[in-house]
Specification:
Shape: globular
CATH architecture of the largest domain: 2-Layer Sandwich
CATH topology of the largest domain: Beta-Lactamase
Strand content: 15-25%
Order of helices and strands: HHHHHEEHHEEEHHHEEEH
Largest sheet: 6 strands, antiparallel
Helix content: 40-55%
Strand order of the largest sheet: 5-4-3-8-7-6
CATH superfamily of the largest domain: GAF domain
Distance between the termini: 15 Å
Number of helices: 11
Structural class: alpha+beta
Number of domains: 2
Number of strands: 8
CATH class of the largest domain: Alpha Beta
C-alpha cells in the first residue's frame, strides 16, 4: 500500500506523455486533460478563452475546444458568449467546498491562526502541495494587514518560500528527494542558491521548529514557516508573512517564529486526540 501512495505522490507534477498513457492502462488521459483545463484558472481570474487555455495547458486547440464544451455541458465551466470566454462554474465551487469542509485540520487550525494574525497584525496561512507549489487552503489576516493579501487557492513556489522549505523538511526522505530533484530540473540555474537556503532552513527547523525567509519570495515581504505531518502521512505547511518594515527579522525570531511553532504544536495535539479517519 505504501508503494502505491508513493507513486501517487510522484504522479502529480505534470500530465504524462501519450506514450506513458498507453503503458498505464489505469490512467484516463481525457479526464486528466479536463482537470488540467480547470486548474489553468488562477485565483482572481474571471474569464479565459480557448487560446489562453491551450497556451497554459499545452494542449492543442481542437482538444481544448472539446474539453471546454464538455465541461460547460456539465456545469464546471460557464460560457460568456459576448466575450467568447469561459469562467469556472458552480460545480467547481461545490467540489472545492466539499474538499475544504472534509478537512479536520482547517477546522482545528482556524482559531489558532486568527489568534496569531491578530496578535502580530500579519497574515497566517495554511498550505497543501499542488505539484511544485503550495496552495493556500486556509488564511487569517490581522485587522490592518496590507501586504500579500492572497486568498484561499493562491499558490506559492515550494522552492522560494519559508512554508515550502518547512514542507520539504516534514516530508519522508523519499518524497522530499523526489521534489528536490524536480525543483532542480525545473530551475537548474537557481538550484545552488535554493540548496543553500534549504540547508539553513532545515537547521533552523530542527533547532527552533520554524524557518525564516527574508525577502526570498517578495523583496518587500518577510516570512516564517513551519509544518506538521499527520498520522495518515499528509503534510501541511504554515507561514506568517508581512512587510519587511513591520515583520522584521528581530520580531520573527523573538516573537512570531516561536509563536508559530507553538501554534503548529497545538494544532497537531488537537488533531492527534481525534479518531483517525477511516
Amino acid at each position: 500500500m505504501r508503494w502505491i501512495l508513493a507513486r501517487n505522490f510522484e504522479n502529480l507534477l505534470a500530465l504524462p506523455s501519450s506514450s506513458s498513457e498507453v503503458k498505464n492502462r489505469q490512467f484516463v488521459g481525457s479526464l486528466a486533460k479536463g482537470l488540467e483545463v480547470l486548474r489553468a484558472f488562477e485565483p482572481g481570474e474571471s474569464y479565459l478563452g480557448n487560446l489562453e487555455l491551450s497556451r497554459r495547458t499545452k494542449l492543442s486547440k481542437p482538444t481544448i475546444a472539446r474539453i471546454t464544451y464538455t465541461l460547460t455541458s456539465l456545469g464546471y465551466l460557464d460560457y460568456n458568449a459576448a466575450l467568447e470566454k469561459y469562467a469556472l462554474g458552480t460545480s467547481v465551487l461545490s467540489l472545492g467546498y466539499a474538499y475544504l469542509s472534509s478537512m479536520g485540520i482547517t477546522r482545528a487550525g482556524r482559531s489558532h491562526m486568527q489568534e496569531l494574525a491578530n496578535h502580530a497584525n500579519i497574515s497566517v496561512a495554511m498550505g497543501s502541495r499542488d505539484r511544485l507549489n503550495l496552495a493556500y487552503i486556509e488564511l487569517a489576516h490581522g485587522s490592518e494587514t496590507v501586504s500579500l493579501r492572497l486568498e484561499v487557492g493562491a499558490r506559492i513556489p515550494i522552492s522560494k518560500s519559508a512554508m515550502g522549505l518547512a514542507y520539504l523538511f516534514a516530508l519522508p526522505e523519499g518524497e522530499r528527494n523526489f521534489l528536490i530533484d524536480a525543483i532542480q530540473k525545473g530551475d537548474p540555474k537557481s538550484f545552488n542558491n535554493f540548496k543553500k537556503r534549504m540547508k539553513i532552513a532545515f537547521k533552523e527547523l530542527k533547532e527552533f521548529g520554524y524557518c525564516v525567509s527574508l525577502g526570498s519570495y517578495e523583496k518587500t515581504v518577510n516570512g516564517v514557516g513551519a509544518a506538521l505531518r499527520l498520522r495518515e502521512g499528509e503534510v501541511f505547511a504554515f507561514n506568517c508573512s508581512g512587510p519587511t518594515y513591520e515583520l522584521t527579522e528581530e520580531k520573527i525570531r523573538e516573537d512570531v517564529g516561536p509563536r508559530l511553532a507553538v501554534m503548529v504544536s497545538r494544532i497537531e495535539a488537537e488533531l492527534f486526540t481525534q479518531p483517525v479517519r477511516p
